[in-house]
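A student in our group prepared the protein record below, which I am reviewing. I have pasted the whole thing underneath without changing anything:
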Amino acid sequence: MANVDYEDVMTDLKNLMTNSSDFWPADYGHYGPLFIRLAWHNAGSYRTSDGRGGADGARQRFEPERSWADNTNLDKARALLWPIKQKHGLGLSWGDLIVLSGNAAIESMGGPVFGFCGGRVDAADGSESVKLGPTLEQEMLMPCKVNGECEEPLGVSTIGLIYVNPEGHMGNPDPEGSAKDIRDVFGRMNLNDTETVALIGGGHAFGKAHGACPAGPGPSPVEDPTNSWPGLCQTGKGKDTYTSGFELPFTTRPTYWDNEYFHNLINLDWHVHKGPGNKNQWEPRMSNGMDQPTAPSADGTHNQTIGLLTSDVALMWKDEAYKSLVRQFADDMEALDHAFEHAWYKLTTRDMGPSTRCSNADAPPPQPFQYPLPDPPAQLADFDKVRQKIDNLLNIDDGEAIGMFTRLAWQCSSTFRSTDYLGGCNGARIRFSPQKDWSVNINIKNALELLEPIKDQTENLSWADLIVLAGNAALEKAGGEPLVFCGGRTDAPDGMGSEFLFPKITGNSSESLVQLKDYISIMGLTQREFVALNGAGYAVGDSSDCDGLYCRRNSFIGTSTVSSCLSNIFFVTLLSENWEEYTIPSTGKKMYKAAGKDLLMLPTDLMIRFDPVLQAIAQDFAEDNNMFLSEVAAAWTKLSISDRFQGPTGNQCSPP
C-alpha cells in the first residue's frame, strides 16, 4: 500500500474517463457519471447503527451487495477498472480504487474534490455485508416487516437499495412522503440536511438514469454469474440500457459541473408521468409554446428531454428546510462547491475511522466526522508513579476498588467498533454525555472520582491512560497475569461520536444469542476472547449499584459481594449448577438463579452454557484456570489498544 502512487492512479483514471469501450459504451463519451455512481453505491451502504457498510473492504464485489437492484450494471464499471487495478498491483486496494474513480470522475467534469484518505483494506468475501441483507442472518438480527418501510437498525428503507426508493415511498410518486424517507435514511448514514441536498443535487448534476424499455436488466449476478444483467432492451447497452428503470438525463449538460439541477427544481413546472421503463418519473411542463429543455442523447444521435425522480422533486416540494437549501445552492455556486466536496469526502471516508488511519501524507486534515483527538504531549506522564498511586488505592479497602476499576476500563474500552473504528477508550468520552448518562454506566462516576486526585496531581496524564492503567492494575491485583501498558492516549473535549455506541448487549432478557454474537463481532473480538472477558466481569466486577456485564451478579438483588480474586469461578459455577428463571422482586429484572442457592446469572451468561460453540470454550476455561487467565490477559490488552491506530492496519502499541 505504501508503494502506491495515488497521483499516477488518478492520471490513469482520468484517461479512462473518455476512452469508451464497445462492450459498455460511455454515455456522452464520458464514463464520469458511471464511476460517480460506482463510488457512491460502494460507500453509501454505510449505516451508523452498527458501523457496517461503506467503501472500506470493497464488498460490493461480493454477494449480497453485488446483486442489489441498486447496483445493476456496476459489474461493468468494475470491469473497466480492472486494467488499472492490475497495473498498480496488490498495493492498490479495490476500495481505494473505487473511491478514486469517483474523485477522478468529479474532477474530470469540473467538479470539486476535497481530498482523499487512502488505506482501505479489501475484504476477502462479503461476509460483513451479509447483515445488510437480504439474507437469513439479516432477518434474524434486524427483520424488516415491509420492504420499503424498513426501520433502524437497518440502514435503508428498502433492502437492496442504497438509500430510498427514487420512485417515492413504496413506489408512490408523492414528493412529500419521499422527503420524509430521505431525511430518515440519510440520517441513518449520519448525513445532515445540507450534506443530503448537496450530495443528491451534486450527484445529479451529472449523467442520466437508464430505463429504455419495461423488459428490465435481466438476471442479476447471483442468478446468472456468467451473463449478469445482459439487458433485455434490444442490445442491452448504450441507448438500450436498463439500470434503474427510469429513462432521463438530469440536466442539459450531463458531463459538466454546475448548479443547473437546482435552478431546474425552482424554475420548471414538474409533472409526473410514466417513462419508457414504465416507472413514475417527472418532466417539465412548458407554457407559451416553449420547448422542453433537452440534453444530447447518451449516444449523441438525438436530443432527450431532461427529467427528475420523485426523490429529486421532493427537495423542492413542501419541506421548507430542503427548499431553503435548494435556493441557496441555486444562488451560490461557491456554497454548493463547499458543501458537495465536504459531503462527498464524508460519504466516502466515514467508515475509515480517525484520520490517523489514512495511509497518504496528503490526506485532508481531520474533519469533525472523524472526531479528532489532540496530539499527546511530548513528554508522557511517569506511568510507574501513576501505577504506584493506583496500587495504593487498591490496597486501602476490602477489594471494592478492583471491581470499580475493571468495570470502568471495560465500559470505556468496549465501546470500540471494528466495523467503522469508532469508540474505544482513547479520548475517555465516558466522562461526557451521552456515555456518562447511559443506564449501563450507572455510578461509573464513583470510580472516576476515586481516581481524580491522581489525575489532578500528575502532569501530562490523560484520563484515557489513567482509566486503562487502573483497569490493568485492578486485574493484576486480583491475580491476573502481568499486563503490558501502552501510554499515549489523549482526552476528547466532549462526547461527540458516542451517540451510536450504546452497548448492544448489557445482560438483559430481551437480548438474543444472535445479538450476542453480533456484538462480539462488532467489537472485533473472537468468541473465545469475549467469553474470557465475560468471565472476568463475573469474577471481579463492580459489587453494588451496578449494571452491565462487569457487575457481580448478586449485586442486582442489592447484595454487595466484593471479590478480589480473578479466577475461572464463572465457568465452574455456570456448568455445575441447575439454573431456573428468576425475577428480582424489587426491579423486575429477569435473571437465572441456581436451584436451591443464592447464585445468579444474567440471561446472556446462560447463552454461554447452552450454545455449543460457547459451551465448548467455557468447558476449556472451567478445566484450566491458567488457560483462562492467559486468555483474559491477551483479550483485555487487545481490546484496550484496539483504538490506537497507526495507518490502515498498524497499531501504535504493537511491538516493533
Q: What stands out?
A: The chain has 21 helices and eleven strands. Residues 437 and 518 are 24 Å apart (CA to CA). The two ends are 19 Å apart (CA to CA).
